[in-house]
Amino acid sequence: PADRAARSRGRRLGVMGGTFDPIHHGHLVAASEVANMFDLDEVVFVPTGRPWQKSDQLVSPAEDRYLMTVIATAENPQFSVSRIDIDRGGPTYTTDTLADLRAENPDAELFFITGADALNQILSWRRPGDLFDQAHFIGVTRPGHTLTDPGFPAGSVSLVEVPALAISSTDCRARVAKGQPIWYLVPDGVVRYISKRRLYRDG
Ligand code: ATP
Ligand code: MG
């Protein structure tokens, strides 16, 4: 009966967009926690093509970011990775990500998972109202950022607390550049991939 109920209500699909340069345990804990809290069937990680907010910064090749995301999520049967933003090319806009995932999953309910910092940026987006029609938004706590409801449309955004991990990709890159360890901040396979591909060596 439980799986019949799951089928009849449609799949609940979490969407975790990010640069993932590199993916770290903060991303994974947020996805895992939201999947449990919202009874999601799957969380799909979507590495950005070129993130429009970061176009003036150096971002690692999409293929490296994609492979690190695959390595980090491979063991979890609930996690998957999508190439849609990478293969679309050009700057990534969340509205395109959600539209493409909607086309691939016409019957699924979409839940877009985002950290407090990224959620605050939504307000600066051109027409955030349209986004809230495309998915339910879930804002998660992140150390160093305040999670506040600035008056989102009713019922469109849930703010939730996840175990605090003060990890950022920026810090991981800086640590590698300085020769400091990133063991236990990112999955072991990602540490080895970064070292094999000599990513982040020059800061
Ligand atoms: P960078 O420092 O390069 O910006 P990042 O650590 O912020 O990297 P992103 O790929 O930019 O990682 O983030 C993808 C998503 O994950 C965003 O919604 C972001 O808010 C969220 N996120 C990142 N780190 C954490 C964390 N430690 N706890 C909760 N959410 C996080
Ligand atoms: Mg970020």
Automatic annotation (TrEMBL):
Biochemical pathway: Cofactor biosynthesis; NAD(+) biosynthesis; deamido-NAD(+) from nicotinate D-ribonucleotide: step 1/1
Recorded GO MF terms: ATP binding; nicotinate-nucleotide adenylyltransferase activity
Cytidyltransferase-like domain residues: 15-175
Enzyme class, spelled out: transferase
Gene Ontology BP terms: NAD+ biosynthetic process
Source domain of life: Bacteria
Swiss-Prot/TrEMBL catalytic activity: nicotinate beta-D-ribonucleotide + ATP + H(+) = deamido-NAD(+) + diphosphate
UniProtKB keywords: ATP-binding, NAD, Nucleotide-binding, Nucleotidyltransferase, Pyridine nucleotide biosynthesis, Transferase
Database matches in Pfam families: CTP_transf_like
Cited InterPro entries: Cyt_trans-like, NadD/NMNAT, Rossmann-like_a/b/a_fold
Keyword Transferase: yes
Protein known as: Probable nicotinate-nucleotide adenylyltransferase
Gene source species: Mangrovactinospora gilvigrisea
Gene symbol of the encoding locus: nadD
